[in-house]
User: Fold these one by one.
Assistant:
Number 1:
Amino acid sequence: MAPSDSSSLSSGLSDVSDNDLSSPDSIAGGSLDRYFKQDSKPASPSQGKRKRPASPPHEYVLADNADIAFIVMFRSRFSAAFPKSLPHYGPQDIERGVADSLPDEQVEKLLCALLGLVLNRKKDVE
């Protein structure tokens, strides 16, 4: 390639000296300070953050009970140890089942199956 065959881009680069590229302000032909806003007021220590109001006290609900999550996890992990006729229950099923003063029939079957495992009984708990 002959020097006359060079493109306009390469000839434009030879016009820029190394001194011009060394200063960050010369890039894009202006100062970079124009992109940053300068705060005219200094921050005063007396002016702090606004405090938000206190959160209301947490009211206990049945969904906060970790025992229900443990029962569901235990049932899914050891499903082979439970009777085949016992279906899988989710946390909401158990919550609905124990919401009344007496447990639901489904939850009662689950609790009897758990007792059978805990007491190591071959015969179903009634």
Note: Helices lie at 8-15, 18-22, 66-77, 91-98, 105-118.
Number 2:
Amino acid sequence: MATGSGFLKAFEKLLVSSKHSDVSIYFGPEKVEFRAHYAILSVHTKYFDAAKERGFAEGLEDKFYFPEGHPHAFYRALQYMYTGDYSSENNQLDNGEEDDRELLKHPRVNAIADLFDIEGLKELCATRFTDQLVTHWISDTFVDSVREIYSTSTKSEDRMRKAIVDTTRTHAKDLYKHSDFKALIKGNAEFSGELTIALLDEGPKQGTGGKDVYCNHCGCTQYVSFD
């Protein structure tokens, strides 16, 4: 009898080989093809079954197209659906496209999990992204990750948004030194609004260093202490 790890390894081989696959999924503008199995997909999401039941052309032809998606992120989502986990290590796809940058990997997988309504995957993405921010908040991709998360996540209680806001509160003094972060504060109304609300909920702090920050979301001005 196969052990638990051996059982999952068998499913991983099934993903890589696409043996007995019965659905094709195309991601990104280059239409990178992934072969998958309806039986496995339907365990995690109702998306593909619904397309079949409602008579959509994609469901009838067993071909699905996501031109705006990110192929590397979808591959990680497939890894999760086949094995219950996904790798954060850089992977190589046949199209030769470079993998997503460090702080964009988990948010992009999360966007796919949100599309297919896979709660377990969303929780895993949020946990890994939150852990990653502890040491990677200074990364050049921090601002990009904020923009991406706030463009793909619609819930203010989203764990990734909370992690971004908490990290910004912790490292505000250092982050505010960067022009791209200042531009983010001024240009992203949802982010600046949620940051302002978090600062107001926290209450005033004593200190001599800080700056008035205008919130495009609610129109108020909040003093942010950098002490």
Note: The longest strand covers residues 23-27.
